[in-house]
Write a structure and sequence with these properties.
Blueprint lengths: L11 E4 L6 H11 L4 E3 L3 E2 L14 E2 L2 H9 L3 E7 L2 E6 H10 L2 E5 L2 H7 L7 E6 L3 H11 L4 H18 L7 E4 L3 H25 L2
Parallel strand pairs: 1-7, 1-8, 2-7, 3-4, 8-9
Antiparallel strand pairs: 3-6, 5-6
The structure holds adenosine-5'-triphosphate (ATP).
The site of adenosine-5'-triphosphate has 14 residues, from α1, α5 and α7.
């Protein structure tokens, strides 16, 4: 539990097209700094998949419960996808802040638009592919989507890339060409905050 007088680290919002490398870069951060970061846990009305635990991958809730929470203004952002509601609650971000870790949010363009309307004091980072063609290649090589899902992601990527060019949306753009170069650049953006968090953690032990 964090002491009362301290300021919580600034959350970091990651966005970027599917396949741009957000998960790859975030995984590297977790690996190098295992205690510095934590994801905020989203709510969803979709059913848990085998192996998923309530409160771990998601807070799994019934639709009426989530609608009630939405009415009570308990979410920073929410969206409907494939007939299911998804959202980041204010409490989910506070829960991470209370552990003293840097809260990571991974949001799409609409999520960023919505969360920007709130008073969340976050660092907004856009992970960009080096080019549209390379994004397409990475999505195909990843072999996790079928052709129609790839087409959909590529269409969304175009919109996302346009949005990233709007002034005042993102604080930083990380071009993920060479992975190590991109990672070191990202690390440089966050290192002050990471050092503060890890220093506090070792002082508490
Ligand atoms: N710099 C890089 N060079 C080459 N390949 C990369 C690089 N960064 C990521 N990749 C590969 O590109 C693919 C997409 O990366 P990743 O899954 O991290 O994207 P993502 O942005 O998290 O996508 P999604 O939003 O769909 O989860 C993966 O197969 C990953 O291994």
């Amino acid at each position: 539990m964090a002491p009362a007088h301290y300021t919580a680290p600034r959350p970091v919002v990651f966005s970027g097209p599917s396949g741009s490398g957000k998960s790859t870069l975030i995984t590297k951060l977790f690996k190098e700094y295992p205690t510095a970061f934590a994801y905020s846990i989203s709510h969803t009305t979709r059913s848990p998949r085998p192996g998923e635990q309530n409160g771990k991958e998601y807070h799994f809730v019934q639709r009426d419960e989530m609608e009630k929470m939405l009415k009570n203004n308990e979410f920073l952002e929410s969206t409907e996808f494939s007939s299911n509601l998804y959202g980041t609650s204010k409490k989910a971000v506070e829960d991470v802040a209370n552990t003293g870790k840097i809260c990571i949010l991974d949001l799409d363009k609409q999520g960023v638009k919505n969360i920007k309307k709130t008073d969340l004091n976050a660092t907004y980072i856009y992970v960009s592919p080096p080019s549209y063609e390379i994004l397409e290649k990475r999505l195909r090589d990843r072999q996790t989507e079928n052709e129609s899902a790839i087409e959909k992601r590529l269409q969304e990527a175009k919109e996302s890339i346009e949005f990233s060019k709007e002034p005042g949306v993102y604080h930083h753009i990380v071009v993920n060409d060479n992975l190590e170069v991109a990672y070191n650049f990202l690390k440089g953006l966050l290192i002050k905050e990471i050092d503060e968090v890890t220093k506090r953690q070792s002082a508490a032990h």
